[in-house]
Amino acid sequence: MAVMGRDRVLVETFGDEGAVRIAKQVLLVALGVAALAIAAKIKVPMWPVPATLQTFVVLSIGASYGMRLGLVTLVAYLAVGALGFDVFTGSSAEVGGLSYMLGATGGYLVGFAVAAGAMGALARAGWDRSVGRMALAMLIGNAIIYLFGVPWMAYLFLEDRGLAWVMQWGMTNFLVFDALKLALAALLFPALWKLVGDARR
Predict the structure, then answer these.
(1) Chain centroid to CA 24
(2) Exposure class string for 49-82: b at 16+ Cβ within 10 A, else e
(3) What pLDDT digit, counting tens, does each position of 96-107 carry?
(4) Architecture of domain 32-200
(5) What is the pLDDT of residues 111-150, one digit of tens each?
């Protein structure tokens, strides 16, 4: 396969197309982990509770990186958090990585990885190139996150606090912000899908 543009310069410099491709993917994973960590700490004032941009970044990584690289990025992010680095929402370093991951947000963290993979598969099929399909893909991605997150919340809190509390604090409080993120992604990605290039495949 012909190598063009900046990739041609890199190949001519380092002499190995495969090595250049791997280096690009490693860099994308590192950038994705950093973006997820930053997004987890950014609080957006919303009613009734503040929200973060983390779900938006998770689904954006899946859509822009593709299924395989998106999933690898999320697994790397979870591994960094499990090692005790403060990359999750709140002060996860004080709790301890694995302890935090077994807490209330544990199901959502697993859902992040699955949703990123699903978004990558949908983007590979071309869903990120039209507003309507990208909106539907974001809806599916959010649903996957809740599919893992809410049952884990129920497992931890249903007996003590009841189903209404679990649904409110596990999903309902965040639906308005989810709708805004969905609209933003649906408008942005059809115009930006080429930025990552062949590294997503």
Answers:
(1) 19
(2) eebbbbbbbbbbbbbbbbbebbbbbbbbbbebbb
(3) 677 888 888 899
(4) Orthogonal Bundle (1.10)
(5) 999 999 999 999 889 888 888 888 899 999 999 999 999 9
